[in-house]
UniProtKB/TrEMBL annotation:
Domain Response regulatory: 10-126
Alphabetic keyword roster: DNA-binding, Phosphoprotein, Transcription, Transcription regulation, Two-component regulatory system
SMART domains: HTH_LUXR, REC
Organism, scientific name: Marinobacter albus
Phylogenetic lineage: Bacteria, Pseudomonadati, Pseudomonadota, Gammaproteobacteria, Pseudomonadales
Name of the protein: DNA-binding response regulator
């Protein structure tokens, strides 16, 4: 039974029981997967610094560092945000199941392991994880640098670009960034409210978008850009005139024809004429598609 795509699925198995590892390893290799083995939590953390697996199978009870703490530590790494962690345990009581899920696990299987059931559960979680990553990569491609934090300012998830721009939990800047977000979010914010934020020696800003399910604050990370340099980038990439690039820039900022006319001191009809040329040069049919093309370009500048 081979899961998903031609590229081999990489599985990290964290278990201190050698016999259990041998049985799981044989089943996974027979299914065409690459297996990484860690005999205890610290080994798993060391491996995670260099390799990000597609899925983790985690023994719940191990000496030194149990599976619950190992899971929490792995999930502090932004690269593991979407990596499914499945607990393996001989304990099926509610307390340990809840502990595993609260630590960041997505599922659990009981020992002795039924490998057919394990592979089926892995297949479901791998599919979900890949769909989530694809969605976040698409948001990055569209220039939507989105992320979510909890009430304390801890990162819950973020698009790949955001994870590159914000300090992770091991970075010296992390406590300050987290504290600033926590204090800002303690106010009754309206959607669109923006807070300046310096992260990794780069001046940026964070825009509040919404509170999801009463616990997840959806935010957008923005990098201030000089208006002249942004218009110049649009001009060069799409072979636009000066006025056409100005109009496209304001379209990308969500302005109406009337607002653009007021900003650029021209009539809405003139704005519309410039837009017709912009659509032709960009090969698009409407302002939404034109704005998306501009946002994608500016996000890479």
């Amino acid at each position: 039974m081979k899961l998903h795509e031609d590229r081999k699925t990489v599985v990290m198995v964290v278990d201190d029981a050698v016999d259990s590892i041998r049985m799981i390893n044989d089943a996974l290799e027979e299914a065409g997967m690459t297996v990484l083995v860690a005999l205890e939590g610290n080994q798993a953390l060391t491996i995670s610094q260099n390799i990000t697996p597609d899925v983790v199978l985690m023994d719940a009870l191990m000496p030194h560092m149990d599976g619950f703490e190992t899971c929490r530590r792995l999930k502090e790494n932004p690269a593991f945000t979407d990596i499914p962690i499945i607990f393996m345990t001989g304990l099926s009581d509610t307390e340990h199941v809840v502990m595993g899920l609260n630590a960041g696990g997505v599922d659990y299987v009981t020992k002795p392991i039924n490998t057919t059931e394990l592979l089926a559960r892995m297949d479901v979680h791998l599919t979900n994880a890949r769909m989530t990553r694809s969605a976040r990569n698409a948001l990055d491609t569209a220039g939507q640098n989105l992320f979510a934090v909890d009430r304390e300012g801890n990162l819950l998830w973020g698009t790949p670009q955001v994870c590159r721009c914000l300090p992770d939990s091991s970075h010296p800047e992390f406590p300050d960034v987290r504290a600033r977000l926590e204090e800002w979010l303690s106010h009754n914010l309206e959607p669109g409210h923006v807070m300046p934020l310096r992260a990794l020696d780069t001046p940026r800003s964070v825009e509040y978008l919404a509170l999801v399910d009463g616990r997840e604050y959806l935010l957008r990370l923005k990098t201030p850009q000089n208006q002249n340099s942004a218009a110049a980038a649009l001009r060069e990439r799409f072979q636009l005139t000066l006025r056409e690039s100005d109009v496209l820039l304001w379209i990308a900022n969500g302005k109406t024809n009337r607002e653009i006319g007021q900003i650029l001191d021209m009539s809405p009809r003139t704005v519309n004429k410039h837009l017709e040329q912009v659509f032709r040069k960009l090969g698009v049919e409407n302002r939404t598609a034109a704005a998306a093309s501009a946002i994608r370009l500016l996000a890479t500048q």
